[in-house]
């Protein structure tokens, strides 16, 4: 008999030999291949009794010369080798056993019998990264990757929309749970990853040193390459795509790619995986996919194959005249180039509203998905990933098909046949409803549109020019082969119908599209931020739930507490009896006080803030604060904290523990000589930074305080109650805005929230916000140059103030000019003044400053100095913190009482802060703690099992997608392994620190470190606990005078359970609030301002508007004139007013009222404006029509200035003769013609008397484009009139 351990020993020796000669093996692969199961069944050995020695000898020989272990066992009952087969596309692992010496073909058959894969469709990749040949032998335990071959099974699934369901296509888009395709983010994530890889591969100098590769790159376009590689990778990772390109060998062998070039290719792949922050398990699986194709791509020791057919040559029956449009266009490559040019043009056109979010719906994924669609439309073999799931469509508003088809005319100019180009446009138009547009924006054509369509069809036939009519959009003229006479005839015919021309969408050239555009790392980082970034942002703003900072609500909760405390302290009679204290309390520096108190409370309670004010003793000792005044200070604090219902008694005690020790630095002993006043009231920060020029933190805090109050009152920001689960607070927004301004101006303040939407101010009307900021700055700073510089910094921080807006790579020419002048040594205020002098010309401004020009400054300087006990300036002065961390100050040797806070100015505390910081990539987005049992949920995110299970049970939404979660979960083993390793190493570091801190008499810090180490050790599985680590834990606890924790009896889930309910409830509230906001303001994150229009709606509100007009078709209720006017006004607002347009609403009766002042429409204020317009339509008196038109012209003059030639309209509706105006019709016409806005006037007359119509015609003569629309009939007549209005302002 042979002992199984002997067999294992030989196998280990042989594996060691292989590892020794394997080049550049990764640590992960080494770890996998070194773990060999030692349990074997004892089997009969057919040989001599000395066989055990023979086995060992063979193993030793194998170790020396690296030979394969020979198969010396025979028969089906012989020794078995245990293999782990990881199915890359399915995301599963299959343990199998095969006889030692089995061929790969035999192994594939075993896999097939297990139901895991078809040998004809799969291949195996070994641990060394090489594809295993069918005759390769398996001689040792190993981990292998089962990879799909790049061939597509037939028949292909249908591209017919009738066969698809929304849920089915959602799964096709994002993948089945657990598959590599789903872990990569589905087709949208795969497309983004490939887009980055392809751009870098095609720019790689090593690959481009191969002349054949360069020639192939030049002859074929990267757009088609990207599509095919995305299609292939989607299929190989488990997606529904089907690869339609050539075989790998046919496409690559002729290029004579060397092993070194392949290594460079893989090196770029690894770089991109790092940019995308992919987990190592996903990198390993993707690596296996690529390596499975290595032998088909690399020409090692063989002559290069003959050059295959060109990329653009297609099969089919072209020469027999029956080829599809796909074949006649040249196949995939020219179609992909067409889509690339078209999508880039549409995304750059401000008139087109295609929603993109920079992450899933980005240009790369949109191009891939739309290329699939176009190929399907023209009869190609490409399978469309999704037809019924709206998120994969362009979601183009139906009437904006006009812009798509217009851009398509130029984007198709690389197709050399005008007939083919025309056929392509017609095909896109016919398929638009099923494949392209947002179906929510489609509606049956009105009678007016149907009549216009007939006229356009007749014009098309008469002129012999194809015309495509897009209702409410425009007419697309297909004039590739038209003569000048035909063009003139069409133009005249369309002009007669009231249509006008618009600027063409700019389309890049075919060569520019083929060359591509290498994205910056910053763009990649923003687009594919790791989940850890989300965790880090939440933890900074809302706090680690174990800390006092987190348990009091993070920065928003503490800022609210600080606000309440400061208000109470400043009103306390005992404190105000001290005249020196009163002088500060009555100054204008209240906002700055609150900021610094919030900052110091944040730091001491465990937040990310860092205190930037003066030391406590320097700021307070000269005030002569007595012990009695200090007692009144603490008593007031207790009263305020007790009144806060959200604070538990434990939290109140901990907050008081932070305040109490400051007595020694604030109180002046009785009879002691007071130090001199440090003259903080007249000292500004040093230097020429804007922070110094603006007067430091106090004026900036006052500005932030006033501005937040203003924008909340004017509804210029998103409602606080509907964001972050209602966790935001007024005081918190003031603190964060002050922090942001100070940091941008050159102060030392650290920004708590950076790029985190849930903590942004949430500006929803940027122009009015800047106007409010300008007025507020004038109240704070007397110097216009200082206020101008502050406003410039505020504009530069736009991405930190608007939800859904991301910071760009640069800041445009203005930002570059400012940066250049700062680098030259000039201050912010000087730069702003010079730019104002030079009217924005950066070169001229720099020249002014270099020549010594100085701005004329206000005699009174900047902000008034109010004096501040904390303010910086005139020396740093460091004093010891009262929080020394000694026994009795927040902890004691005998108990586990919580520490009273951090230690200010301590290097030891700084070290502890770093040790207590946890890896956000290994932390749950819900609990914000390190993972204990990480799982992958249905949204593709990784969560703590208990947290996501509870969230799902409560019906909560995904914190990432804000959509419902399904109960299916799969273990995230790689993340579990990394979290375990982090806790093991960090626990050891914490225990070492605890011993050093205890020696340094920093007992509280030592206890904090030991407690966290205990938490980590308890969380480790028993087999992962190093006995040496457990011993060190016990020794450290004994040294601290505490009973060693019984590690084996500790609950490993205690740390998670302690915060679970609170964190799940908060995550649920946040996701629901975000989903509600997204539903209400669907386009908020994809705002693209179209060509702006300025419109004043002027509506008759006289009592005669209450007369019955009729009923709409299919409606049983009679409608009044006002009902119909209101409905049509809202129709115009909903369908034809774009984000970026400026509107006003004026109603007239006896008087003229401005119901909606000049307002730029945004996704955030659209609903509110709609509600105001709806409420304005109420009858109330007589008719002052002419006066309302004069008021409308004045209102239009107040609208923001737009480029010359862009439309400005007054749309007026009236139902009777004017009987209240001071102006006559002729005076009104003169006012309108002299108006600087030069408005076009559209007057809708509802059932007017014949003697009134001449006056309306006179008004219609105001400008060439003005018009009187007579709605003399019933309700259909009024509806048709508004349809005409809509067409005039939209086409």
Describe this structure in words.
- The chain is an alpha/beta fold and 1291 residues long.
- It has 53 helices and 19 strands.
- It has a six-stranded mixed sheet with strand order 16-15-12-17-18-19, with helices on both faces. A four-stranded mixed sheet has the order 2-1-6-4, with helices on both faces.
- Strand 18, helix 52 and strand 19 form a beta-alpha-beta unit.
- Helix 44 runs parallel beside helix 46 (1027-1039).
Topology of helices and strands:
Layout (H helix, E strand, L loop, with lengths): L3 H17 L6 H8 L16 H15 L14 E8 L4 E8 L2 E2 H10 L8 E4 L11 E2 L3 E7 L17 H9 L5 H4 L2 H16 L3 H4 L2 H9 L2 H15 L11 H5 L6 H17 L4 H12 L2 H4 L27 H5 L2 H17 L14 H15 L23 H11 L6 H18 L11 H17 L3 E4 L3 E4 L6 H13 L13 H6 L5 H7 L3 H12 L5 H4 L2 H17 L2 H4 L2 H7 L4 H15 L11 H5 L6 H17 L5 H11 L3 H4 L23 H4 L3 H17 L16 H15 L21 H15 L3 H13 L15 H12 L4 H10 L4 H9 L56 H10 L17 E3 L5 E3 H9 L16 E2 L1 H27 L3 H17 L7 H13 L14 H27 L13 E7 L7 E3 L8 E2 H16 L5 E7 L3 E9 L5 H11 L8 H14 L9 E7 L10 H10 L5 E7 L6 H8 L6 E5 L3 H16 L1
Parallel strand pairs: 1-6, 12-15, 12-17, 17-18, 18-19
Antiparallel strand pairs: 1-2, 3-5, 4-6, 7-8, 9-10, 9-11, 13-14, 15-16
Helix pairs in contact: 1-3, 7-10, 7-12, 7-17, 10-16, 16-17, 16-18, 18-19, 20-21, 24-26, 26-29, 26-31, 26-36, 29-35, 29-36, 31-32, 35-36, 35-37, 37-38, 38-40, 40-41, 42-44, 43-47, 44-45, 44-46, 45-46, 48-53, 50-51
Key features?
1291 residues; four-stranded mixed sheet; 53 helices; globular; disordered N terminus
